[in-house]
Amino acid sequence: MRLRPTPRGWGIAGTGLALLVLGSGLGNVDLLRIGLLALLCVGGAAAVVAWRDPAKGRNRVSVERVAVPNPVHAGSDVGVAVRIRAHDAGSRTRLMGLRFSEQAATELSAGQPLRARVTRERGNVTVSYSVRAARRGRWPVGPLVVTRTDVFGTVATTAELGDAAEIAVWPEVVALPVSSDVLVGEPDRVALGARSPSTDDSSLRDYREGDDLRRVHWRSSARRGSLLVRSDERAGMRPVSVLIDLPQRGAQAVEWSVSVAASMALAMLDAGHPVRILDGTRAGLAAPFVHSRSDGARAALLDRTIDLTSPRGTSEAEAQLVAAAHMLDSTEANGEIVLAVVGALTARTRESFAHMADTAQCWAMVRTDSSGAGHVQETEHTLRALRRAGWRAVGVTAGESPTDAWLRLLGCGR
Q: What is the pLDDT of residue 91?
């Protein structure tokens, strides 16, 4: 809590101090009394305002903050409602005369003051406003800042009320078309089985958050005592790993790469494939496959992208990509479809990626991270190396249409 005199309070206190000095010099008791009374007025007002702090004491008020929608995609608006409630007569008295202001991260407010609408009812005040999520991440809103003065307007106090909340911002995504004939050829479908297998081909697995409840096998679940779901939907559908290599500089290039990777992941999930997003970090390598097409499954994939950050240097970036390639080249990961969004690769990374193509069907967008001639040559060298190893690879430029880059990757673009 911050306590300060208002301009009126400074004036009264200054006048009182001047009267004390003048009365002392002239030996006038009346001037001394008036000066002392003025100072006591300001001091007493400060004590009363501090004692009636709405954030403390038995009669404090409660604050509830709701942001809808949350999470939200970058570029979308979020409505925020802050409800301040008084639960008894004492807290209702404290609530009267409060002035409210709200705080939000620059990524939500664009550095501008928030324009809020205040609605007052008996024992309740609602502060509502909207913000725009400008960039992917987790951004705070609040706490609420309340200002009140004493009845004479001599002292003002500013305090924070309630806790801050967090708005999670997903990357902006684009609906990408998926051609099963391109991504999974006829030999693969014959080897992997039909998409609609017979009941005999079905198997059961443990229920995962986001699974469609219509696929729960209730009889087996009752026998076991835990939920089991039919996993026949996965038959004939290769698992998909979306591998992302973020550039080390350029916020636009970073966000474009995350947006493209998230769009590809959602497109493959909607096509029926189990999907995961990898970035080569320890947490990324442990990312599980998402198996359902439900809203919860889509949210789980997008949540994986919120905290993605660029490597701190070339060596860290190389180590992450090599670790991801080794994991994908393992026996457990055989038969996957790998979709990668990467920059120019080092010799060690190109070698690891070449081995990956021996056991997986691999597709890559190779990003030109700079306009310099050296980076362009490195990108072309990476493209040639990947294609020789059996990858389907195309060069892309950060900022171009994700749909155009995707169609070019599938061989459908002009």
A: 61
